[in-house]
């Protein structure tokens, strides 16, 4: 009889200990899940807090710039400090804008674009080139600097079209003695917008 009582007491104690361990284990799993969820939401909140202002800054960075419409062919934005500079040229589809020593030149469908096969010259320092798309159109962008009379002159050039086949729709360049002009050029290039093509209607 005493053996049975000891067995029952031992068994009850073991069951109680097992139940306690299960409760502790269940709570541990629960708190671990809660901690994981909290960490996930903190990461999301941090991402939104940091990235959203950056995106807003990028969007607003050109919002107060002047909008330039180039003969209905395309539009782009320029800082308010840029002014159009009248030049004597035989090309009607070209323009020049200046802001101090920073100069922007554009040519619409240039007749003699730079040779693609010889685009990198030995005097071009820190030459970088990238292929991208602007509003769905192929674009080649290159940046570099050269030394003129002991000073650095920075260049950013944009070729929209098939530069390799010399079928360039738009050439745009920004030249300046200030390195920050390269960032400005990048924003200008990104602001280019071409009009939507006129939809074709079948003859009725």
Please provide a written account of the structure.
The protein is an alpha+beta fold. It folds into two domains: 1-60; 66-190, Mog1/PsbP, alpha/beta/alpha sandwich (Protein Transport Mog1p, Chain A). The protein has two helices and nine strands; from the N terminus they run H-E-E-E-E-E-E-E-E-E-H. It has helices at residues 2-60, 181-190, and strands spanning 66-70, 74-78, 83-84, 94-99, 102-108, 125-134, 137-148, 151-162, 167-176. The longest helix is centred in the N-terminal third of the chain and has 59 residues, at 2-60. The radius of gyration is 33 Å and the shape is elongated. It starts with a helix and ends in a 14-residue tail after the last helix. Residues 43-59 have low confidence and may be disordered.
């Amino acid at each position: 009889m005493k053996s049975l009582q000891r067995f029952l007491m031992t068994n009850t104690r073991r069951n109680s200990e097992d139940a306690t361990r299960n409760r502790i284990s269940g709570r541990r799993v629960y708190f671990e899940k809660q901690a994981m969820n909290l960490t996930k939401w903190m990461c999301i909140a941090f991402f939104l807090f940091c990235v959203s202002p950056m995106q807003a800054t990028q969007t607003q960075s050109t919002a107060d710039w002047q909008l330039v419409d180039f003969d209905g062919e395309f539009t782009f934005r320029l800082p308010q400090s840029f002014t159009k500079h009248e030049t004597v040229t035989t090309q009607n589809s070209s323009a020049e804008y200046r802001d101090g020593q920073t100069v922007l030149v554009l040519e619409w469908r240039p007749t003699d674009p730079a040779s693609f096969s010889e685009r990198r010259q030995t005097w071009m320092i820190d030459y970088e080139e990238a292929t991208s798309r602007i509003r769905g159109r192929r674009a080649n962008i290159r940046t570099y600097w050269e030394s003129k009379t002991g000073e650095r002159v920075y260049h950013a050039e944009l070729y929209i079209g098939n530069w390799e086949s010399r079928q360039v729709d738009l050439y745009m360049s920004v030249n300046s003695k200030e390195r920050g002009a390269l960032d400005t050029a990048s924003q200008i290039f990104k602001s280019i917008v071409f009009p939507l093509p006129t939809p074709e209607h079948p003859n009725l």
